[in-house]
């Protein structure tokens, strides 16, 4: 199952991100802003606990978050979404999964795993700007499942139909939240119209 953020404020930022003339500084700022929107939507069902609060006027009750959350960016491009996620969830732990794409087959090549030990109740949020073929996303979720994570969500900026289909076939219980669902993949496995290489645009390595 997947959710596409159909909001004018999100569409405005995605249009700016698509523009090839958008410089890295502005691109990073837009990534931060869209990531925050994704976080708000993805965390609508986050668990809370009721507490008593004394305001300057009277006593009342309020809700505090009652979750153990682990943010898991897929290296390297996923790092570009991490700052905004930590702004929203400053108490979250962070793990990383390193994957490199085989440019001929588009298959992911895992090369690094550093994730906090799972106790079974944590919510793991995988972040990666692009869901193209779905290979890296599927492998990331599979790795987290093997490490003991039972509650997982996946957040991306742009998704291709092919990647969504593969992901939902392999991990039907993991919800996907994306800011845009694009047309297709091209022959080089890039999303059309897409953003280009999100990692290169975030880090200025074009």
Provide a compact summary of the structure:
33% of the residues lie in helices and 32% in strands. The chain is of the alpha/beta class and 206 residues long.
Task: Explain how this protein is built.
- This protein is α/β, with parallel strands linked by helices and 206 residues long.
- It has a single domain, classed as Rossmann fold.
- It has 6 helices and 13 strands.
- It has helices spanning 8-18, 24-42, 79-88, 135-146, 161-170, 198-203; strands at residues 2-4, 48-54, 59-65, 69-75, 93-94, 96-101, 108-114, 123-127, 130-131, 151-159, 176-181, 184-185, 191-192.
- Strands 1, 4, 5, 6, 7, 8, 9, 10 and 11 form a 9-stranded mixed β-sheet that branches.
- Strand 9 (130-131), helix 4 and strand 10 form a beta-alpha-beta unit.
- Helix 1 (8-18) runs antiparallel to helix 2 (24-42) and helix 2 (24-42) packs across helix 3.
- The protein is globular.
- It starts with a strand and ends with a helix.
- The mean pLDDT is 93.
List keywords for this structure.
9-stranded mixed beta sheet; 6 helices; 33% helix; Rossmann fold; two-stranded antiparallel ribbon; 13 strands; alpha/beta; 206 residues
Produce the secondary structure layout.
Layout: E1 2-4, H1 8-18, H2 24-42, E2 48-54, E3 59-65, E4 69-75, H3 79-88, E5 93-94, E6 96-101, E7 108-114, E8 123-127, E9 130-131, H4 135-146, E10 151-159, H5 161-170, E11 176-181, E12 184-185, E13 191-192, H6 198-203
Parallel strand pairs: 1-11, 4-5, 4-6, 4-8, 8-10, 9-10, 10-11
Antiparallel strand pairs: 2-3, 6-7, 12-13
């Amino acid at each position: 199952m997947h959710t596409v953020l159909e909001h004018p404020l999100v569409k405005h930022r995605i249009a700016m991100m698509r523009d090839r003339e958008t410089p890295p500084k502005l691109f990073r700022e837009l990534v931060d802003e869209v990531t925050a929107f994704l976080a708000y939507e993805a965390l609508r069902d986050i668990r809370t606990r009721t507490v008593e609060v004394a305001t300057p006027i009277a006593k009342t009750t309020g809700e505090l978050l009652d979750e153990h959350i682990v943010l898991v960016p897929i290296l390297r491009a996923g790092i570009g979404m991490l700052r905004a996620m930590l702004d929203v969830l400053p108490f979250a732990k962070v793990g990383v999964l390193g994957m490199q794409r085989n440019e001929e087959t588009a298959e992911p090549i895992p090369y690094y795993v550093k994730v906090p030990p799972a106790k079974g109740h944590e919510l793991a949020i995988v972040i990666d700007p692009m869901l193209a073929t779905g290979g890296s996303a599927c492998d990331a979720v599979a790795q987290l499942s093997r490490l003991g994570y039972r509650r997982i969500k996946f957040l991306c900026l742009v998704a291709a139909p092919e990647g969504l289909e593969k992901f939902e076939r392999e991990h039907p219980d993991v919800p996907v939240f994306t800011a845009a669902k694009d047309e297709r993949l091209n022959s080089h496995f890039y999303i059309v119209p897409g953003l280009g290489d999100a990692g290169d645009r975030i880090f200025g390595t074009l």
